[in-house]
Amino acid sequence: MSVRRDAKEKTMTTNPNQGRSFISDCMRWSLSGGIGFKIYIIALLAVMAVGAFSYTRQFQEGLIITGMSDIVSWGLYISNFTFFVGVAAAAVMLILPAYMLKDKDLHEVVIIGECVAVGALVMCLMFITVDMGGPLKVWHMIPGIGLFNWPSSILTWDMLVLNGYLALNSLVPLYILYCNYHNREPVGWKYKPFVFLSIFWAVSIHMTTAFLYQGLPARPFWNNPLLGPRFLASAFAAGPAVIMVVLIAIKQNTKYSVDEQIFLKLKRIIVVSAVINLLMLFSEVFKEFYTFTHHSLSAQYLFFGLEGHNSLVPWIWTAISLNIIGTLLFAFDPTKGNPRYLMVAAISLFTGIWIEKGFGLIIPGFVPSPMGEVVDYAPTSNEILITLGVLATGALVVTMLIKPALAVLLKYKEAKAKILK
Amino acid sequence: MNSSKKKEGMMKPENGEKKISRRSFIKGLSIAAAAGSAGLVTGGCGSLGNTEEMGLKWEEYFKKNYRLMSQKEKDETVARLVRLAKMKDDRDIQMSNAEPRENVLYGYAFNISRCKGYMDCVEACVQENNLDRKSKTQYIRLFEMDSGQLDPTSGDGKYHHEVPVADKFYMGVQCYHCENAPCIKACPTKATWREPDGIVVVDYDWCIGCRYCLAACPYWGRRFNWGTPEVPEEEINRKQHYLGNRMRMKGVMEKCTFCVQRTRQGKLPACAEACPTGSRVFGNLLDPDSEIRFVLKNKKVFRFKEELGTDPKFWYFMD
Q1: Judging by DSSP bridges, how do beta strands B106-111 and B280-284 pair with one another?
Q2: CA distance A159 to chain B (A)
Q3: Cβ-count burial A1-16 (b if 16+ within 10 Å, e if not)
Q4: Considering only CB atoms, which chain A residues are within 8 Å of B215?
Q5: B206–A153: do the CB atoms touch at under 8 Å?
Q6: Using one digit for the tens of pLDDT, what is the confidence trace for B2-39?
Q7: Residue A159, domain member (yes or no)
Q8: Does a structural domain hold residue A346?
Q9: Which residue segment(s) compose the domain that A179 sits in?
Q10: ipTM of the complex
């Protein structure tokens, strides 16, 4: 069956075959591309395969082949999980201005932000799964069949909000694209309530993830009321920075035009969030070191090392440097939005926050242990390969979602322009 | 096809076979396999024995959380585990599922002025509870302390020399069986809970291995099985309890259970029995004549990290 459609077909139609052709068209658009694109996809698939192979080893032997121990019992997986929850939540920084403040420029790219959020959420759920001691027993968490410790356990809250946000961020863009594919304007009341819900939901996924740590009196480094707000501030800097990199890649590699204004607006969002994030960082550091207590030992371990254990020290100072450099590059942009310049700024900012929100937050929470042990943690190669596999899966998901989304949007734009003529 | 017709068709009784859910189908299949082969297995038929093992494993996989099981289901799972131990490792074990005793709330007190740091308690605990020898898992830790300090985190938990040492005292640390336990609150699947006799237990078969309870425990009272635990066959304690010292698998949490397999039979925990100095006092807090009540009433008593409000059932005291 031919899937090509001409201008005559743009009126409303109830032909059930159209649903099927939407899917097949989208799949075709996801997979088609030049030689560079094919190499990119093959590279991602290769990394995923290596990750999957490494995971089978971990599945058979247990988490013993990771660098984690009874003292540092969460490592690279949960670190990455924490960071990518932030990236997922950051889609709200496009959704909020686009829908609530009716910003036309950001409306153009809001779907791309949502695709990035879906990819980030897929990674989050995968990171949690690979971190589990008994992944086959995960059905114990399903309410009804299993036993769900709700509302007591914050982990159950996190599960709910992450899956809910995944649903919201998949279904709303799907509906909009489906309408656009059929050259229809989406009907406001059918999706806008969910858009507004997703705005609150985005905040909730990151706050809940912060509460996962913040609620533990056993870990003074996390048991800090600034943790949640700071998660948001850093996420609203790092997330749009990731989205900006994706947009620059789109602008340079596809026919889809991304307006200069969009970069400038994203830049403003990033600068404000990044500055608030730095202020909160300063506040945390002040609290830990001005009056040094036993509860500051984790911060001591992180920033300066403790009892000769200083594996995190170079990481955290690199992270803070990148964080400050990224913020300054965005704040004092002499090129006024040159994509190459912004690319450098965005990468340095999100790398800085990635290290800080990952390694720099999770590991020192465990060191020293409640019994005073100081132990270093380093991920094993197997653990790193699994992590890379998950990251590659996320990148693949984002690519596979963005390509058909852009194709639909482009066609819809062209069709609209024709009508206007 | 008309969807309403489709639904009607599904509900027709002659399609009843298709309606059986996957879970009950598998369960039925496994029971049939188990029943069919059980008689032959005793006759020494290897391949059918594997079928029975598969069946038992399926049933184990789909069983409920221990707390939700009826007494019959509890007995069945214990019987299955005993059978599986025989089939898999040719090991004869006795597994109890003894319930908490009436009017009992266990409490523990540790005499810091008596303990000399001999570590007999640690050794007894490892033996009694089938703790992993490969990773040297220990529920109890003894900290060698300098005078002037009362926080084990400032002591030496890895001392390796002859004891006792002059001017040092010793502080034993283990799961405190908190009344308001952060680990229980944290667990997403209710795989850990506090029994009516005050023992905080883990359903090993229900734990998904997320380790959130480990992060939540302010006393480092929980241990994770990063790999499959190993105990030499001749050293395995065959008197086991479902919630206690039965063999654990990889990827699950475990912890001190006040030796539930012993204490519910009226015995002392292995550590208290093994202690050569009598520093460890264990008993029923609800019994006014118990030694533990005497200690709490007449000695100078304190709790570790009391400010967290976890209300541990474990006290330290001095003579």
Answers
A1: antiparallel
A2: 9
A3: eeeeeeeeebeeeeee
A4: 73-74, 216, 218-219, 365-366
A5: no
A6: 444 433 434 434 443 444 455 555 555 555 544 444 44
A7: yes
A8: yes
A9: 33-420
A10: 0.91
